[in-house]
Amino acid sequence: MTCNIAVFGTGYLGATHAACMAELGHHVIGVDVDASKLAKLESGEVPFYEPGLQEVLQRNIAAGRLRFTSSYQEAASFADIHFLGVGTPQKKGEFAADLTYVDAVIEQLAPLLEKPAVIFGKSTVPVGTAARLAAKARQLAPAGVDVEVAWNPEFLREGFAVQDTLHPDRLVLGIDRDFPGRAEEAARAVYAQLLDEGIPFIVTDLATSELVKTSANAFLATKISFINAMAEVCEAAGADVTVLADAIGHDERIGRKFLNAGVGFGGGCLPKDIRAFMARAGELGADQALTFLREVDDINMRRRARMVELAREACGSLLGARVAVLGAAFKPDSDDVRDSPALNVAGQIQLQGAAVNVYDPKAMDNSRALFPTLGYSTSALDACSGADVVLVLTEWREFKELNPNDLGRVVRQKSLIDGRNCLNPTTWRDAGWTYRGLGRP
Ligand code: UGA
Question: Which of 44, 73, 91, 349 is the most exposed place for a label (fewest CB within 10 A)?
Answer without folding.
Answer: 73
